[in-house]
Design brief:
Elements: E1 5-8, H1 13-18, E2 22-28, H2 33-49, E3 55-59, H3 64-69, E4 77-82, E5 85-92, H4 97-106, H5 110-117, E6 123-126, E7 129-132, H6 136-147, E8 152-156, E9 169-170, E10 180-181, H7 182-195, E11 199-202, E12 206-210, E13 215-218, E14 222-225, E15 228-231, E16 235-237, H8 245-248, E17 253-254, H9 257-260, E18 268-272, H10 276-285, E19 291-296, H11 305-312, E20 317-321, E21 323-332, E22 335-342, E23 348-353, E24 355-358, E25 362-364, E26 394-396, H12 408-424
Parallel strand pairs: 1-3, 2-3, 6-14, 7-8, 7-15, 8-11, 15-26, 17-24, 18-19, 18-24, 19-20
Antiparallel strand pairs: 2-4, 4-5, 9-10, 12-13, 13-14, 16-25, 21-22, 22-23
Helix pairs in contact: 2-4, 6-7, 6-12, 10-11
Length: 426
């Protein structure tokens, strides 16, 4: 622990926190990947701000009563104090350096803020390979690279795991007889990568990526320079682009069943889509809701037959085929409407519901790279058989690249191929 960080317990809380003009406290847990991701940032910022603001840590598991009284339900949780009162943002989960700095700056005078910012020093780190993205493809590439003694740093704007970490159950990943929770499968992969020597820079902000010169700048302070780069930035849920979608996203419209289904216990929801993700997520949502209506534009689902039949057998599921949504409406808390059109008759009607889930495909996360890379007609990165892109020494793996099938197994296969190709040429 850095010299300007002090570990305290519940007995010290009154004097060390509440009695001070200002303080910041990290409530952490053991065996907690987000806590580990925060630790390096917290330590670095203590060296900058620590003379003006006490940096404290409290072991949450050993001080449960205090944590409960403060309504701390996740680790890590960082709380800022001024004159004994909680101020600013309560930060939890994958905490970014910029969010910490913004709240720390709010505790300072302008002169103190300027003085502390003057202490910030930019630096450069060298490595053999940078892997951009911590989903199954990126983690697999990291595992294979480090096992081949290729120094690898993995960079992700979120925590490791990728989109699969939000998936309820994964039932077809080899090696597991029983379906695995998505977040646990992600955890196994990230812990394996860490054990093999992959260095992590996660929950960071990527400020600049120079693919030609193989550099990546993160958090405004660290520039990582490599010999090769593996792009594994994955994809994100595709929006429909309909009236009301942007306004009510996260406030009635969701793209993540694992995140939000639990809030619709005994309620009614509408699911838009008919592919694998839509049907599998609808199955999960159906466990919570009183009624689920699934709206699909074609006369048949495109999902795997087993999942389809299971969904069709449920008593609380209604299926509306050959219909498309045209507009989303909101009338109040958990009081939504979606206007759908019958594609055969052209007739429109409004479905009243408590919430709406959209699962209509994905878009590749490539904006940070500008227009420097070759893409297909849908915007996915094109590669050769060894996963190399149109730029020498830059590889693309997983859901960000052109491929016929986007599955966890195909993602890890891409990561394997790229890593072996790189290892043979280092």
């Amino acid at each position: 622990m850095a010299k300007l960080i002090k570990e305290i317990n519940a007995e010290d809380y009154k004097n060390e926190v509440l009695a001070q003009p200002r303080a910041v406290v990290d409530f952490y847990s053991t065996e907690c990947p987000p806590c580990e991701a925060l630790a390096a940032k917290y330590e670095a910022l203590s060296e900058i701000y620590g003379e003006d603001i006490p940096f404290l840590k409290i072991f949450r598991q050993g001080n449960r009563e205090l944590a409960t009284n403060l309504d701390i339900i996740g680790s890590p949780t960082v709380i800022f104090y001024e004159n004994g009162k909680i101020v600013g943002d309560r930060l939890t989960g994958g905490i970014k350096r910029s969010d910490l700095m913004r709240n720390l700056d709010a505790l300072l005078t302008e002169n103190e803020k300027a003085s502390n910012h003057a202490k910030i020093q930019k630096y450069e780190t060298g490595t053999d390979v940078i892997v951009l993205g911590g989903g199954p493809a990126g983690l697999t590439a990291g595992i294979y690279l480090t096992q081949a003694h290729v120094k690898t740093i993995l960079v992700d704007t979120a925590l490791p795991g990728g989109y699969v970490s939000t998936t309820h159950l994964v039932s077809n990943y080899p090696g597991f007889i029983e379906p695995q929770q998505g977040f646990m499968l992600s955890h196994y992969m990230s812990e394996q990568a860490k054990a093999n020597g992959v260095e992590f820079r996660v929950a960071v902000e990527v400020n600049d990526v120079d693919l030609e010169n193989k550099t990546v700048t993160i958090d405004g302070v660290e520039t990582i320079k490599a010999k090769k780069i593996v792009i594994a930035t994955g994809s994100r849920p595709k929006p429909l682009g309909l009236p009301g979608e942007k306004e009510y996203g996260g406030n009635g419209i969701s793209y993540c069943a694992t995140c939000d289904a639990k809030y619709f216990q005994d309620k009614e929801v509408v699911v838009i889509g008919g592919g694998n993700s839509a049907i599998e997520e609808a199955l999960f949502i159906s466990k919570f809701v009183k009624k689920l209506t699934i709206v699909h534009q074609f006369d048949n689902f495109q999902a795997n037959k087993v999942a389809q039949e299971k969904l069709k057998s449920l008593d609380n599921v209604e299926i509306l085929l050959e219909h498309e949504p045209r507009e989303f409406k909101k009338y109040g808390t958990m009081d939504m409407g979606v206007v759908v059109e019958d594609l055969k008759s052209g007739e429109r009607k409004e479905l009243k519901t408590n919430g709406i889930f959209v699962f209509v495909g994905f878009l590749p996360n490539i904006e940070v790279f500008g227009e420097t890379l070759g893409v297909d007609q849908w915007g996915y990165l094109t590669t050769n058989d060894e996963m190399e892109t149109s730029i020498d020494g830059v590889y693309a793996v997983g859901d960000v690249k052109t491929k016929a099938y986007r599955q966890i197994t195909t993602a890890v296969a891409d990561g394997t191929i790229a890593a072996i190709a790189i290892s043979k040429n280092m």
